[in-house]
Amino acid sequence: MRQGVAIDFETIFMHAPVGMCVSHNRVIQASNRALDRMFGYAQGELNGKSFSVLYPSPDEFERTGARIVPIMNACGRYSDERIMKRASQELFWCHVSGSALVPHDAHAAGIWTFDDLSAKRPVTAELTPREREIAALLVEGKTSKLIARQVGLSPRTVEMHRAKLMRKFAAATSSELVNRLLGVTRQAPPGNPAAAEATVL
Length: 201
Prior knowledge:
By secondary structure, this protein is of the alpha+beta class. 36% of the residues lie in helices and 22% in strands.
C-alpha cells in the first residue's frame, strides 16, 4: 500500500483559487493570496484588520453583521451576494459564504470565502448604502415584506427604495430590476424590436 502524501493545509489555504480568510470577532486573522488580490491589498496586509475595510460604508458593515447573527446561530452557515469595496475604493459585486467555528456565537470565529462577480455583474449605478443593502436582498428573490422584517424597515419604506432603484436602473418592472442588478439586460433580436432576449453584460 502506498504511503499517503502529507497534506500541507497552510499551502492549500494560501494558494486556493478562491478568496478565503479566518476571522475572530469580525477581525481578519489570516487571509489568502486570492483574497488580498481581489480587494487590492498587499499579501498579508489584511491580517489584523476589521472586515469593515471591505465594506462601502460603516453602516453596511454594522447592518450586515446584525443580519448574519440569527442565521448563523441557527444553522452555522451564511451566504449572500453583496456590493463590497476594494482598497482603490472601487465597488464590486461579491458572493460571500461563511461557516461559524463556535456554535451559537456567529462572530466569535469563522471561515469565509469571497468570489468576485464583477466580470459578469458590474456596478452600473451610484447607490446609497441602504439601496445597496436592499438591492442585495432583491437579488436573493426576497419580497418587500421579508426585506422589511430583515432590515428593520416598514414595507412602505422598502417599496420607496425599490422605486428609486427602478428609476436608477431604468427598469419598468421588479423582474427587470432584478435582471439589471444581476448584470442581465433585455436586447431585442434583429427584425423583431418588440421581442427581447436575455443578454449578459
